[in-house]
Write a sequence for this structure.
C-alpha cells in the first residue's frame, strides 16, 4: 500500500548492550541522524533521520532512551 495511513510506532527491538545513544549533526548542512555507537569499537549505526523535535521524541520512545542519555557529536 503506497498511500495508506502511517502505522503507529511500535517499540523497536534493538540490542543496546554496550552501545551509547548518539545524535550526529553535520556542521555544514545541519543534518542530524540518531543511532547507537558501540563503546568498544566506536562504530556508529544510524537508525533515524532527525528533521524536527518530534522525530527525536519518536526515536527516544521507540528505543526507550532518555534525553539525558543521548550524546551529541559534530
Amino acid at each position: 500500500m503506497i498511500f495508506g495511513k502511517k502505522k503507529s510506532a511500535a517499540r523497536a527491538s534493538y540490542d543496546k548492550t554496550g552501545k551509547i545513544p548518539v545524535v550526529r549533526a553535520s556542521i555544514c548542512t545541519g543534518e542530524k541522524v540518531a543511532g547507537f555507537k558501540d563503546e568498544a569499537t566506536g562504530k556508529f549505526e544510524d537508525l533515524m533521520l532527525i528533521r524536527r523535535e518530534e522525530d527525536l521524541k519518536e526515536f527516544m520512545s521507540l528505543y526507550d532512551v532518555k534525553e539525558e542519555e543521548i550524546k551529541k557529536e559534530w
About this structure: The radius of gyration is 13 Å.
